[in-house]
Amino acid sequence: MFSNDYLKSNNNPFRSFLMGGFECADHQNAFGERVDLYQMSGHDRFLEEDYDLLDDLGIKTVREGIRWSAVEKKPYEYDWSEVDRIIKVSHSKNVQVIWDICHFGFPDDLTPLHPMFARRFSHLCREFVIKYRSIVPYDTLIVTPINEVSFISWLGGDVRGTSPYCVGQGWEVKYALMKAYIEGIEMMRKVDPSVRILITEPLVNIVSNNIGNDISLLSAEEKHFEQFQVHDILSGAMCLELRGKPEYLDIIGVNYYYNNQWINETHEFLPWADEPPHHLFRSLHSLVENVFSRYGRPIIIAETSHPGEDRAKWIRQINQECRSILSSGIPLFGCCYYPIIDRPDWDHLGHWHHSGIFDIYDKNSLERIPDTESIDAFLEFKNTVNIIDAVVSI
Questions:
Q1: Are 244 and 227 within 8 A, CB to CB?
Q2: Angstrom distances, CA of residue 337 to CA of 63, 110, 325, 383
């Protein structure tokens, strides 16, 4: 749809290709408990130190969230104290922040199906931009209004994993979230027309293992292409009444994990590390290429990581895929390791994933322990990117 729309003048706004994401989910989990992974991971306690750790890795761009449930305890009343602190600390350390306005969590009195949800969210977006510009008037402001609309619509609308705890209402939740998403962009750009929008959606591959059955193949294909509904609504290609526009599809972030490819009939994950790979498994390069062919927008890998012992192996594979994507000429603007610091499971808070580059073993001190193999792999990735940048600049 937008294959000829990408302009060479659309310069990369990010300060570093390699980025780090700090887990900022603040939603109600499957048991109705409010989680706050910003605090549980200790990022609130170690904000300055965490930025210093990333600086040592050459990371100048990070993903953070404002935590809507913490900012708006009462309707239209905002506590920006912690957001203010992040803005000032990041600015003082020359760290660029990509801001998530909503990373899964809503205030206690709201769900996406509430009639005032979009209005509340759009006012929050406007007030955030006003707050940010009161501290940092001139730099590039990059915002993700709502992270992973597709995922949160499924989690809250189909499998009762979070608010609004529904079954069979995934589309209704998605529609409501996209109404809020677009109204939020409209409000932000009234305050500051220069705000850049980073859409962050899962990048998946859904296939059928029943190759001889046309109905199975079509069903898997339909599920596969549902991942683009958010992009199409945002750009105005569908649900025109929500007022999407092509320019709202600004930078496309793809969230890609080890379990993002599966068989439609059985929900069995396609193994990523097998040699040779599963015959239905697709490379990250091929999936990204399809996104760029479809929309013609610059892309970043907005989230990627792997839990446990295969972390370093995963980083090296992502490194290889990024090199392949960059060498093909696709405008890949960056890659964000998410989460960069360890965090607990949403639903089982005593279990920590160990998917970050820095682990946490002591739940009291929350001391950051570097995973040496992951650090080595990350530094190899950094050196690769530096070499590519040098070649491109010649």
A1: no
A2: 10, 31, 17, 16
CA distance 247 to 295: 11
- Please say whether the dihedral angle defined by the alpha carbons of residues 356, 51, 38 and 150, taken in this order, is positive or negative: negative
Closest CA to 304 of 347, 273, 334: 334
What kind and span of H or E run contains 202?
A: strand 196-202
Residue 5 has pLDDT above 80, yes or no: no
Name the DSSP class of 161: S
- Determine phi and psi for 223, rounding to 5 degrees: -65, -40
In the chain, % helix, strand, coil (3-state, to 5) comes to 40, 15, 45
At 205, phi and psi to the nearest 5? -135, 110
Instruction: Name 277's Cβ contacts closer than 8 Å, sequence gap at least 6.
Output: 271
Residue-wise pLDDT for 369-384, tens only, equals 999 999 999 999 998 8
Q: Is the pLDDT score of 88 beyond 70? A: yes
- Ramachandran region, residue 28 (left: φ > 0; alpha: ψ -120 to 50; beta: rest): beta
Q: Which residue in 97, 117, 119 sits closest to 106, CA to CA? A: 117
Maximum separation of any 2 CA atoms in the chain, in Å = 61
pLDDT, tens digit, 9 for 90 and up, residues 296-306: 999 999 999 99
Burial bucket for residue 97 (CB in 10 Å: 0-12, 13-18, 19+): buried
Q: Which residue has the tokens 């209004």?
A: 145
| Closest C-alpha among 168, 153, 167, 160 to residue 30 | 160
The residue among 36, 27, 39, 64 whose CA lies nearest residue 366 is 39
In angstroms, rounded to a whole number, what is the distance separating the alpha carbons of residues 16 and 114?
A: 39
- Exposure of 251 in the CB half-sphere (CA atoms within 13 A): 25
pTM for this prediction: 0.95
Q: Which residue has the tokens 């989690």?
A: 155
Contact between residue 235 and residue 242 where contact means Cβ atoms under 8 Å apart: no
The tokens for 366 are 């929350």
Residue 182, φ and ψ in degrees, nearest 5: -70, -40
